[in-house]
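Board notes (copied after class):
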Amino acid sequence: MTAGNARRGHAGADRPDRAVIDIGSNTVRLAVYAGSRRAPEVWLNEKVSAKLGRDLATTGRMPAKAMDYALGALARFATILPDLGITDVQTVATAAVRDAANGPAFLERVRALGLAPRLLTGEEEAQAAALGVIGAFPGARGTVADLGGGSLELVMIENGGCHDGVSLPLGTLRLPALREQGPVAFRAAIEREMARAGWAAEHPGPLYMVGGTWRALATSALRRGDHPLTDPHALTMTIEEADALAKKVARLEPAELAAIPGVSSSRAAGLPDAANMLRIMLADLKPDGLVFSSWGLREGLLFGRLSPSARAQDPLLAAVAHFTDPRGGSPSQAAMMAAWTADAATGTGPGDERLRLTATMLALAAAHIEPNLRARHAYDWAMDKRWLGLDPEGRARIAAAQLAACGRPPTPPALARLASEAALREAVGWGLAIRLCRRLGAGTRVSLLSSALTREDGRLVLRFDPERAQLASDIVANDLKALAQWLGLEAEIRIGESTRLREPTSDLAV
């Protein structure tokens, strides 16, 4: 796997090279991407709350002022993109433009700006959101619930594909009209539409929650619950937790919700209605739980254009390699170090190996940060940076490894809320082994090839070639002792015995 092929500018910084303009029912957004092809990162994110779908339920048309506001933003986007040198632009329109009587005329005005808008069908919109979830959660199986301003898309995902997609007129801008009819009529209307997706109740797996309103719901849970994580992506909830949260949010005023850090006033306005709808969805669809996804339609459009081999890449390793390589965390060096420290790791699953390699790449990059900032940055990278293919437990384990690699093995109590004591203890061992390996001989290839770390009869043995015996310094001896004690072993240094670094396995290839 390569670290990625996005353009890089000065000092290895990413340059944006692709963009998606999303003309939605609630917002009109420009998302510009850089980073690896498999795991692109948002380089620029601009939006305006045009609310094109505001009057669809009553007039069937987009308001003139809303269209003018949206076109002003689109004209701005059409000006910025050439300035950035970006020609790979996908412009799509969704439910409001699709359902409005004046949608075709609006699209003509968009074309006059030099853009090439594509009007997505309800099925295409659902499939794009599903591809976003598949790209963010390899192996995902369940139902994607993409909530926009004009519609709610439900689509089944499994085995890397999607099917049975349906677009329901239950967007956040349409729910107030249903609510005004009273709670009984509101429930009846939601249940009537849910019946069109009856297959979802028979399909195993969680609901993958896509869309800004769902993310705001997850953010409210993180902030009000003093959660260790700050990013709602990959946050999971049981049905009981989700129902309790929705019940609480449905009773709050928008002003109270907007006071929660990370919840915008525009999202807060639609949260109570969305929460009430969610409670009905949980009862009718009976999912196995909830998983919140920051990837949706826009990322799905990018993922859908990748080759099968690119889609098959591990998004976590692809993103971390792309991030750390220009920061001194060479993926090839990290793979060699992960192989060198393999005997110090007690985990046996392939999931452990990818986490250990991720921790190694991040630790190598963190080593180039000045010491007084190193641990803080490394911890924040693990806990707060948006990574794909990484659940909360994985974040906690990587964070524990980072602190140990920085010489701070005690794990913060917050991590114990995300991972078991045994999992965190294992991760600290990874970090101590990374620290030993890095400080052995500055992590150079020759220092690793001329030494070996093995477990033998209750001992952790570090071997050196005779001509490299001078590397066995007090610092190295102390690092070896700290690792051995953590693993419940005796430390021993041997000079002159055979040392041969095992070749990195396919699981460690980057």
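Comment from the instructor: Residues 1-5, 501-509 have pLDDT under 50 and may be disordered. The chain is about 45% helix and 15% strand.
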